[in-house]
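As a warm-up, study this chain.
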Amino acid sequence: MDNTLIHSDRAHAEAYNRSLIKIGYERIPLKLIAALFGRPKREVCAILSGSKNEKKIQEILKWHDHYLYKTAKYTRKIRGVISTIRRLKKRYNIVILSNCSHAHIELLLKSAKIKKEYFNLIIGYDDVKHSKPWPDEIIMAEKLMHHKAEYIIGDSIYDIRAGKKAHIKTIGVLTGNFNRKALRKEKPTMILKSIRNIERYL
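Now compare it with the structure written out below.
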């Protein structure tokens, strides 16, 4: 979802900064926080805090989740995403997989003015044991949809790693924080400029 369907870096980074300030840390530049996105949220909190203390990590995570309801207003949909999804829906089942919680996926979609009804399933990190780069979200989608997934499309190296572990085709898009060189190192099936280019490839 993030940086594939919507731009939400500012929403997440602002929520993290507010949570860090709340417990006594200094503000961190958005770019430095955004560079961590795509990882499991607990890992992001550990890096931001510079601590392995589980209580501190959980506190940052708790306040991030609280503040996101206020910062979600900064979320914007990626250009052309609605028309692309509408056309894809005619031929494919579409599932959102995200390292956001299920509730936050719905919150951010609503903030970006994307109807959740466009998607057959929504799976967040709190719906599985392990989030990306583990393949748990893909495996759950396959079980619930009763067929093998064909592609995973994402902006991060963690999306591609999850897809490879699930033995499906992987498509990287350049609308996030990972450039072509970084994505190419993971050897995806294809790299596209944006999800708007997906139909031509398929």
